[in-house]
């Protein structure tokens, strides 16, 4: 599998799709940065949380576009993305209003993201790989000679 830019994405969480893996790595980097900065001063940095949620929106759109391009039904996964964005947005609002502890949220955020990759994105990676394999087989003649696309 390709290396990821920051190297924070654990190997066991890679799904084998370079763009998605790079975005997962970026999210882990952003979470680590949030933890380092916010736990040092004990204050939530709301703009950084807003930027993280915006990056999740971009990332989820990337996964959806990959699935669509591969002809994969993504409806259940997309519903999970919407649910996750609602939960994360509500949690950030609770942080702003002082109803949620910063440390609790940061622990949850990292745990939730790892679980999302394990429960949803790894399956997506397998399905994308299957679609790539089917696509490359469809470009071959019966004798196994590659045809130009």
UniProtKB/TrEMBL annotation:
Entry keywords, A to Z? Iron, Metal-binding
Starting at the broadest rank, the lineage of the source organism is: Bacteria, Pseudomonadati, Pseudomonadota, Betaproteobacteria, Rhodocyclales
Its protein name is: Hemerythrin family protein
Q: Which Gene3D superfamilies match?
A: Hemerythrin-like
Q: Which domain of life is it from?
A: Bacteria
Q: Which family does it belong to?
A: Belongs to the hemerythrin family.
Reply yes or no: does the keyword Ion transport apply.
no
GO MF term list: metal ion binding
Organism of this sequence: Azospira restricta
């Amino acid at each position: 599998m390709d290396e990821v830019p920051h190297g924070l994405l654990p190997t066991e969480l890679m799904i084998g799709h370079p763009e998605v893996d790079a975005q997962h790595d970026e999210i882990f980097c952003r979470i680590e940065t949030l933890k380092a900065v916010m736990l040092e001063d004990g204050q939530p940095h709301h703009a950084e949380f807003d930027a993280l949620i915006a990056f999740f929106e971009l990332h989820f759109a990337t996964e959806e576009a990959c699935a669509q391009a591969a002809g994969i039904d993504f409806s259940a996964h997309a519903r999970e993305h919407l649910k996750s964005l609602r939960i994360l947005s509500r949690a950030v609002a609770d942080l702003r209003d002082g109803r949620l502890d910063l440390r609790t949220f940061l622990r949850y955020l990292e745990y939730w993201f790892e679980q999302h990759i394990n429960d949803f994105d790894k399956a997506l990676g397998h399905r994308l790989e299957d679609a790539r394999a089917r696509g490359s087989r469809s470009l071959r003649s019966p004798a196994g000679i590659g045809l130009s696309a």
